[in-house]
């Protein structure tokens, strides 16, 4: 992507994400309509829809030739990542938004022919923006994030992962994962995949492992995490497909070897 155009898109994206966040903060205490999607704990609110629709309107007005993939369906149905594609999660961590009124993010990743060029993760209530342009480093607001330490020992690692790994599940033997969590220093569950990527990029956690995430959960996170030397693959070590759901392992190269071999030991089938 031409660097002048990329800077222009970055400036617009930054302006829209701050504007969308301001709108959410203003309305945070208004009554909410909460619906469910795939299961009773899979929530969506009017604010998820309003925010996605805001981005789609702005993008279509300014860049009619760009494609959009959004969780709530206001974007396009894509069969390829050709051209410029905005991958948007208007509220990542909707359960946190509903129950906690904090700990959620707006996530926007911008791709050119399948390559991640610009990533934004906006922690709305804290008013903290994680952002990156490919090959220009990752930032938390105005502070450049240092490259990840590569001498992390697995016994000193904090890994973000939810309880499903420790319950009987289709992917990995829970006893192998129970042994794994006793080996590492600690676990965290933030409830927003985008924030988990942002915190891994910041180095306050050392990795993140998830059983199934959609493109909008990870599109910005992968770009930002990559800029500090982080790697993201499926739990089998294969590349991420930005048009489908994927299992996710995000960490540094040293931990990647160790975690991939743990997962391999307990791996059952490849159904998500
Ligand atoms: P969401 O809040 O945008 O739905 C923790 O639940 C993380 O997993 C969040 O980033 C959440 O994104 C994502 N997630 C993906 N699929 C989900 C589902 N079916 N139900 C709840 N959370 C889901
Ligand atoms: Ca959702
Ligand atoms: Ca999400
Ligand atoms: Ca969402």
UniProtKB/TrEMBL annotation:
What InterPro entries does UniProt report for this protein, alphabetically?
A: Inositol_monoP_metal-BS, Inositol_monophosphatase-like
Requisite cofactors:
Mg(2+)
GO biological process annotation, one example: signal transduction
Residues the record lists as binding Mg(2+): 71, 89, 91-92, 217
Q: Which domain of life is it from?
A: Bacteria
Which keywords belong to this entry?
Answer: Hydrolase, Magnesium, Metal-binding
* GO MF annotation list: inositol monophosphate 1-phosphatase activity; metal ion binding
The record's annotation in PANTHER family points to:
INOSITOL MONOPHOSPHATASE (PTHR20854), INOSITOL-1-MONOPHOSPHATASE-RELATED (PTHR20854:SF4)
Name of the featured protein: Inositol monophosphatase family protein
Q: Which organism is it from?
A: Oceanobacillus bengalensis
Taxon lineage: Bacteria, Bacillati, Bacillota, Bacilli, Bacillales
